[in-house]
Amino acid sequence: MSLLESSQLLPSRRFKTLRTIMALILREMSTTYGKSPGGYIWAVVEPAAGVALLSVLFSLAFRAPPIGSSFSLFYATGLLPFMLYVDISRKIAGSLAFSKQLLFYPGVTFVDAVIARFVLNYITQILVVLVVAWGIIWMEDLQLILNVRAIILAVLMAGALGLGVGVMNCFLFRRFPIWVRVWAIMTRPLFLLSCIFVMYDHVPEPFSNYLWFNPLVQIVGQMRSGFTPPIAPITSSRSMSSAWPLRFLSSVWRC
Amino acid sequence: MLKLDGICKTFRLGNRQKVVANNISVVFPSRTSVALLGRNGAGKTSLLRIVAGTMRPDSGRVVSDGTISWPVGFAGSFHPELTGAQNTRFIARVYGVDTKNLSAFVEDFAELGLHFHQPFKTYSSGMRSRLAFGVSMGIHFDTYLVDEVTSVGDAAFREKSKAVFNARLETSGAVVVSHSMSMIKAMCQAAAVLEGGKLTYFDDVDEAIARHEENMKRAAPV
Questions:
Q1: Which H, E and C letters describe chain B, residue by residue?
Q2: What pLDDT score does A254 carry?
């Protein structure tokens, strides 16, 4: 029992939050897709392949995109920020259930659990965006001028919205279990209402006014504005879509 | 030193209220094992969780100048897909102890052999408790929380566990919940009786046990 007295077994109080978050991230990485060979790589490959397949299928069905020359790129630029938002908001909403047993340890707080989940899944989703966008550009040999700042902004906006909605639902799902069903029904048409398949500018007058209040429309528009020739010029209001996630977050914080 | 300062905690059961802690203020000295006595449902486990920091009191605070463990022997947080070694490393990271050292200690202590590197879900219940107890003992806390530790393993392993825990208690304190008075007499130097939301601290264990048994003869306070 010489190890019993080892001073390296004294718990340390330094960098406690950072250490816990790292431990949670490593744990999630080794438990998700732990069984499949390749492990966590599937977390990137699976959604990337899914988005790529959808984009290719839609490009077979329609000949010309509303704007630009590549149909798959048009869809992908809409689908990617949308999927990023959906994935982040779902994972964050489930973060407390996911780490429930770990909250038993005084060393793990619920904020650690939310942050760890956000960091890991956000990085994963950013990799998905990079892999799919780069893959389509490379395979179709597209000549584009990328506005990297606009794309980064779109990714940040989608992440912030996902985090905000996720944290809000994390609370509401637990407090009002019926909200799980209501939310699932309410957000079902979101896929069609986020201007992934159509241009915002092509939506007729009364409806476009309503769509304007969907923050995802702004995010998709922001994403497309990063790919020139500009696929979507002025459909994004940054202040609009950055206000939404903050509103969700603050409503939870006030509880 | 572990100090509870004006702790209040009330649970709502339907429209009735159950008071677990009614303005409890007490100081547990360092390096002292304190038994926590009380009838079933008096709130011993809740109080332990408040001390551990996993349950928030309605008011009041817990102050400690040292580190506090999670209830010793808790296995519920081990992930079934991860191996014993991976689960051990996770806890080492959370508590900031050296992962290699803790793994080495647990591997040697828990006597799991090759199973240490197999998924936790394949373990028998005895192996699970040995791993959990090993991880608890591996980290050197200033205060250990013990909630009804049931003896695990064969006689030899029990002897070893007892020896290691006693070695730990030479330099650390503990808060022990148990219904076994013989174990409490053997382990603890002081005791506190929880009854009707009030905690009474005794420097003498026998005195506390006498008070507790007196309480048990009466009906539970509402």
A1: CEEEEEEEEEEEECCEEEEEEEEEEEEECCCCEEEEECCCCCCHHHHHHHHHCCCCCCEEEEEECCCECCCCCCCCCCCCCCEHHHHHHHHHHHHCCCHHHHHHHHHHHHCCHHHHHCEHHHCCHHHHHHHHHHHHHHCCCCEEEEECCCCCCCHHHHHHHHHHHHHHHHHCEEEEECCCHHHHHHHCCEEEEEECCEEEEECCHHHHHHHHHHHHHCCCCC
A2: 56
